[in-house]
Amino acid sequence: RRDVLVLTPWLAPIVWEGTFSRDILDAQYLQKNLVTGVVTFAVEKYWLFIEGFVSSANKYFLAGHPVNFYLFTDCPEKISHLQMAPENHLFVIPVQDDPRWQDLSRSRMDILSSYIQRQFQHEVDYLYSMDINVQLLAHIGVEIIDALVATISSWQVTPQQDNKASETQPGSQSA
């Protein structure tokens, strides 16, 4: 394609539909026997999104490739049996609800850091994090797999300096 940028100014590739061959990539990655992990949190009322998220991610996220879905929730008893593709696995991990919303992100990052160190690094080759209230509507394939990946949201394409959130935590190194 010549109608889109395929490289950032810092030389990171930008992947667009039509800039790669899905069949070639699928064949290459199947030979590598990679396992990808997806972590998500369903705490408090967000357990209502579990079925929609899991069914859409199971269908569209790396279809045909092994994926371990790690679901952190404070309501494991509310999760009914969810049908998974044969190559995929769902692991439900109980967590406590954090009463202070201000500490929510930090608390989740601490939990993820701990699980990455003691479990996930031994079970998956790549690890992604998704919000539980997301429903995938189209195929997301192995074109997203690399040593370091990120997504660009529309608001990030034309950043405005005055829209940066202020960091209020004294221990933060955020600029």
Short description:
With 175 residues, this protein is an alpha/beta fold. It is 26% helix and 14% strand. The protein has a four-stranded parallel beta sheet with strand order 3-2-1-4, with helices on both faces.
Protein described:
The chain is an alpha/beta fold and 175 residues long. 26% of the residues lie in helices and 14% in strands. The chain is globular, with a radius of gyration of 18 Å.
| Number of extended strands | 4
State the oligomer: single chain
Terminus-to-terminus distance: 37 Å
Mean pLDDT: 83
The largest pleated sheet is described as:
4 strands, parallel
Shape: globular
**CATH-defined superfamily of the domain at 33-141:** Spore Coat Polysaccharide Biosynthesis Protein SpsA, Chain A
Structural class: alpha/beta
Helix share of residues? Answer: 25-40%
The top level CATH class name of the domain at 33-141: Alpha Beta
- How is the CATH topology of the domain at 33-141 named? Spore Coat Polysaccharide Biosynthesis Protein SpsA, Chain A
Rg on CA atoms, Å: 18 Å
Order of helices and strands: HEHEEHEH
- CATH architectural grouping of the domain at 33-141: Alpha-Beta Complex
Q: What order do the helices and strands come in, and which of them pair?
A:
Layout: H1 22-32, E1 36-42, H2 50-60, E2 67-73, E3 89-94, H3 104-123, E4 126-129, H4 154-157
Parallel strand pairs: 1-2, 1-4, 2-3
